[in-house]
Write a structure and sequence with these properties.
The chain is built from two helices and 23 strands. By secondary structure, it is mainly beta.
């Protein structure tokens, strides 16, 4: 991580302040340590003669990770200074016999397996004026333009400069210049790549990467029940994207609501290094009744390519789920989802989710039948609410995927995590 030293130097100078200012800085600091134990099993069960057999029949790995997060307060004064940091360490518990490649661990190219351990340190200096904050260093993002993935052992982190302004009630504006990424199974920072749909086959289009990604946008809460967002983003020489989002929650009575989430993105190429051309529309309607939630979703791709997003991130799509994103060229997909929170019947901390998605009309090229796929997810999670095991979470995620243009998959993930507040 060749740029960490610069951020550390900035952070150190930021902290070299008067004792009074330092006391204010520490007083609002929050520090937590998460221990994450992750078992991953993915079986490739290709039964369709149209798709070549997967050379690797199974990915199976078990690993332990630790994530230390520190978010400082700010010093007193017109301009307040502070720093944030994420320390990460992961190590292998079990992997071998050709089962590597789960994304939990760093690949070992010499052996074809995984490295025994890896680590990372993300540090960002920050300054605050009024209700606007500037951060410079390494950080995570979560918005319509870019969302860091945290679905494996350690999170994905970006090298960037980022400003957030909340000067007006209900309005949040932000902008960033991003230079490099440290992926969730990587030891170092590297240039940013691009993916165009088909989450299970993450790839960089034409091997193209860049060291420049910019976005600007924000969200506005028009009323207590209605909010809207817009983001413009540009992955230099690869794609430009306009993303729109409207969310409305309609109260229907005692413990009842109807939530509508509509998303639209228009992506085009930026130069001659890609041929990106995509329109992505998605809508999700969810009816909530006490502890129950019933959702229906629809997503449609059109244009010459699938949906474009930064390689390895979580795309802003209503039908992005455990394995697939249903964002292939011309794909139409539908989702039915059910959630239940057992707190409504006196068991706080226990939640259940299941969903089924089906997609068709995938353009596989001239003279080839349309692509079709479906995915089924089930998730059960319990977080202990009291006693010696308080904050210990146990999460089981199961998925099955079937397709006539990609490999069939059965997958299980078991995650045991414990978060300990230190400050």
């Amino acid at each position: 991580m060749r740029k960490t030293s610069l951020a550390l130097a900035v952070a150190a100078s930021t902290l070299g302040l008067s004792q009074v200012a330092f006391a204010d800085l520490v007083g609002d600091t929050k520090v937590s340590l998460e221990a994450r134990n992750f078992y991953f099993n993915r079986d490739f069960r290709q039964g369709n003669s149209e798709v070549p057999a997967q050379s690797q029949s199974k990915q199976e790995e078990w690993a332990q990770g630790f994530i230390l997060r520190m978010n400082s307060g700010f010093t007193e004064g017109t301009v307040g200074f502070g720093a944030d940091a994420i320390g990460m360490f992961g190590f292998k518990l079990d992997s071998g016999d050709g089962t590597a490649g789960s994304g939990l661990l760093v690949p070992d190219r010499s052996s074809g397996g995984s490295q025994d351990n890896y680590s990372g340190l993300a540090v960002a200096a920050k300054a605050k004026v009024s209700n606007s904050t500037l951060r410079v260093g390494q950080m995570q993002f979560k918005n319509a333009a870019i969302a860091s993935s945290d679905s494996r052992l350690l999170p994905q982190v970006f090298e960037a400069g980022h400003v957030v302004s909340q000067e007006l009630d209900g309005l949040m504006l932000e902008a960033a210049h991003v230079r490099e990424v440290n992926n969730r199974n990587s030891n170092d920072y590297e240039d940013i790549g691009i993916t165009t749909g088909g989450r299970r086959g993450i790839s960089t289009v034409g091997g193209s990467t860049t060291d420049s990604f910019d976005f600007i946008g924000g969200t506005y809460k028009l009323t207590k029940d209605l909010s809207a967002g817009y983001y413009y983003s540009n992955l230099d020489e690869l794609y430009k994207q306009h993303s729109f989002n409207v969310v409305h929650v309609l109260p229907l009575g005692d413990k009842q609501s109807l939530k509508t989430d509509v998303r639209y993105a228009r992506s085009t190429d930026d130069g001659n290094r890609s041929n990106i051309d995509n329109k992505a529309f998605g809508a999700m309607v969810t009816y909530g009744l006490d502890g129950h939630a019933f959702g229906l979703g629809y997503q449609k791709m059109s244009g010459d390519t699938g949906f474009a997003y930064i390689n390895g991130t979580d795309p802003f799509l209503v039908n992005y789920v455990q394995i697939g994103d249903f964002a292939n060229k011309d794909e139409k997909s539908y989702q039915a989802r059910y959630d239940f929170n057992f707190a409504s019947i006196g068991i706080p901390g226990l939640t259940f989710m299941t969903r089924y998605l089906t997609g068709d009309n995938v353009d596989r090229g001239r003279g080839v039948s349309e692509g079709r796929e479906w995915e089924r997810n089930t998730e059960l999670m319990y977080v202990f609410q009291e006693g010696a095991l308080k904050n210990l979470g146990v999460r089981w995620r199961n998925a099955s995927v079937r397709s006539n243009f990609a490999n069939d998959i059965d997958e299980n993930r078991l995650i045991v995590s414990y978060t300990l507040p230190l400050m």
